[in-house]
Design goal:
The chain is α/β, with parallel strands linked by helices. It is built from seven helices and ten strands. A hairpin with a 2-residue loop joins strand 4 and strand 5. Helix 2 crosses helix 3, helix 2 packs parallel to helix 4 and helix 3 crosses helix 4. One of its GO terms (molecular function) is ATP binding.
Length: about 260
């Protein structure tokens, strides 16, 4: 059974003053994602990647089509989906541990259980020694680790990530990619990852969905047949370079056709 199934999803936004004028942002998008699969959405700016992720999260509605997680319709936000954005969205007056606890308390867990689970998740991302630090005392990479720990704390079925490493420096970004793959392998997650970085998509993913623009739709799907676990050596494999070139070529040809 598919973990996520999307069939003929359409999303429009009103433009201008007339109620009849609409811009189609996503047009009949269909895709399926399997249990424990790691997939990336790539494409030119404005192709609807983030909008699609937001609809899956339940933060935005859609006009037509079906979305199901484990066969159940998505009708709004839910604890079955964890979300990590490029901005860390941490509460600055709370410590790292308290930020994770805050999310857990919102799901109905009591104070003791929330505290225990928060520390477990911070250990998972290597931040147990920084549990009492406030966001302003943490580096960008550490803040994003807290955001990941928070998103995983209530055991979601899907982890949705929208350019989570886009604001990080190159070295920290590589470290976060390696951390994410280790957490994904350990926790048996299903991950949907939005990125502009094709190299990142190839390194992380089982499949890559290239989106076309105006309106947004799925153009091409690439399997990533690279062995796991992936390391720095993976980047030097000929298969890696060839797949990266193919995906980039697909995006560039779409941009030329606009």
């Amino acid at each position: 059974m598919d973990k996520l199934l999307i069939n003929n999803l359409t999303k429009t936004f009103p433009v201008g003053r007339s109620k009849r004028d609409h811009l189609t942002v996503l047009d009949k998008v269909s895709l399926s994602i399997k249990e424990n699969e790691f997939v990336s959405l790539v494409g030119a700016s404005g192709c609807g990647k983030s909008t699609l992720l937001s609809i899956i999260s339940g933060l935005q509605t859609h006009d037509d089509g079906d979305l199901k997680v484990d066969g159940n319709d998505i009708t709004g936000p839910g604890a079955d989906r964890g979300v990590v954005f490029q901005s860390y969205t941490l509460l600055p007056w709370l410590t790292a541990k308290e930020n994770v606890e805050f999310a857990l308390r919102a799901t109905g867990r009591d104070k003791t259980e929330s505290a225990e689970l928060a520390m477990t998740q911070l250990k998972l991302v290597g931040l147990e020694k920084f549990a009492d630090r406030h966001p302003g005392q943490l580096s960008g990479g550490m803040k994003q680790r807290v955001a990941i720990a928070r998103a995983l704390s209530y055991k979601p079925k899907l982890l949705l990530m929208d350019e989570p490493f886009g604001a990080l420096d190159a070295l920290t970004r590589v470290q976060m990619q390696e951390l994410l793959t280790s957490v994904w392998e350990r926790e048996k997650l299903t991950v949907i990852f939005v990125t502009h970085d094709v190299e990142e998509a190839v390194f992380l993913s089982d499949r890559i969905f290239v989106m076309a623009s105006n309106p947004g739709r799925i153009k091409t799907i690439y399997d990533v047949p690279l062995p796991r676990p992936r390391t720095a050596e993976t980047h030097r494999m000929p298969e890696f370079a060839n797949l990266q070139a193919d995906v980039l070529g697909s995006i560039r040809s779409e941009m030329r056709d606009q």
